[in-house]
Design brief:
With 337 residues, the protein is an alpha/beta fold. It contains 14 helices and seven strands. A hairpin with an 8-residue loop joins strand 4 and strand 5. The longest helix is centred in the C-terminal third of the chain and has 19 residues. The chain binds adenosine-5'-triphosphate (ATP) and magnesium ion.
Length: 337
């Protein structure tokens, strides 16, 4: 799909400048067969971009290779194949993932987890475009595009001796960094609608996202990035009652965050400058006294937290970042009911 207005190009949803820049880089990358390195936090869409680069100029197969799962003695054979009799159990010739990707794209996911002894073989594959199956003496030529991705900081990995500098240089020629979702929150509504319609195509009845939902999503930092947002929508799709959206269906991390927001809004509503606002005369401030004592400010904060959480002490304690017992003790100390 290539409808630039809808933000659907390459299956990469988003209307932020950051996504626009990524789309331009995908176009550039697809014009040649140089290795590409995709960096970015977990869940930012590295695999989506890898597939987009392949799909922009589709040749051969897209073969994902999970470097983290390549462990033990079979790893080399998984990657490069083996010949009959190479080791006990090698009863016939077997092709590896690299051969499968010949003519297409090999996607080395979590390249930072690739063991050092495999890194040297990957370097040879990139530089000489050849590999050798386990037990074979023959070097085989291949023509493939290599895309690698990692959420790790490869500079740190190099410094720690876990990643080869020469391989890093080779991969880093065309590096593309995926920004975290919290730096491009304008993309959230499009992504929400995208994931909602995904849910509908798999037979779920649609939910109506409302402003409260978008506000909550906008206030949250999404440490798990787009994947976390997708899971959240999947969960809402699965849990919603009668098509109506229940805030209680949100994952607890978001709900907790929302309580914090409620607190902030309350702070704003009660207003240190507007004593009449908020209908909570107990902690309306006199504008003439900009400084209040620490115990007094603590008393007010606790009262506000209790008001914001409708007296739910557990929630209030969490929002305040203190334990329940501490909250009770302080309530008693300040005579708060
Ligand atoms: N821009 C986007 N548009 C649509 N879907 C997206 C986008 N970015 C991410 N996704 C979706 O979010 C999920 C996570 O994306 P992906 O697997 O590409 O992330 P990743 O960077 O590879 O994460 P990890 O490092 O954890 O493997 C997938 O379901 C993917 O389809
Ligand atoms: Mg991934």
């Amino acid at each position: 799909m290539h409808q630039s207005t809808s933000g659907w190009d390459h299956g990469l949803v988003g209307q932020s400048q950051e996504i626009a820049a990524i789309r331009r880089l995908i176009e550039k990358a697809s014009a040649n067969r140089l290795p590409v390195l995709l960096l970015g936090e977990s869940g930012t869409g590295k695999e989506v971009v890898a597939r987009a680069i392949h799909d922009s100029n589709p040749r051969g197969q897209f073969v994902p290779i999970d470097c983290g799962s390549l462990v033990g003695t079979l790893m080399e054979s998984e990657l490069f194949g083996h010949v009959k009799g190479a080791f006990s159990g090698a009863v016939e010739n077997k092709r590896g993932l690299v051969e499968l990707a010949d003519g297409g794209t090999a996607f080395f996911d979590e390249i930072g987890d690739l063991p050092l002894e495999m890194q040297v073989k990957l370097l040879r594959l990139i530089q000489e475009r050849e590999f050798r199956a386990v037990g074979s003496l023959q070097w085989r030529k291949v023509d493939l595009r290599i895309i690698a991705a990692t959420h790790r900081n490869l500079n740190d990995e190099v410094a720690a001796g876990r990643f080869r500098l020469d391989l890093f240089y080779r991969l880093n020629v065309f590096a593309l960094r995926l920004p975290p979702l919290r730096h491009r929150k304008v993309d959230i509504p499009l992504l929400v609608n995208h994931f909602l319609s995904d849910g509908q195509t798999s037979g779920l009845r649609g939910i109506e996202p409302n402003q409260e939902l978008f506000d909550t999503f906008d206030a949250y930092d999404w440490p798990g990035n787009v994947r976390e947002l997708k899971h959240c929508i999947d969960r809402l799709n699965a849990l919603r009652s009668e098509g109506a959206l229940q805030m209680a269906d949100l994952p607890s991390a978001l709900r907790h965050h929302r309580d914090m927001r409620g607190l902030e809004q309350l702070y704003g509503a009660v207003g240190f400058s507007d004593p009449a606002a908020g209908g909570l005369p107990d902690f309306a401030m006199t504008p003439k006294s900009p400084v209040i004592s620490l115990p007094e400010s603590e008393r007010r904060t606790i009262s506000q937290a209790l008001a914001a959480t409708h007296g739910e002490r557990g929630k209030a304690a969490r929002a305040l970042g203190i334990g329940r017992t501490t909250l009770y003790r302080k309530m008693k100390q300040y005579g708060i009911e």
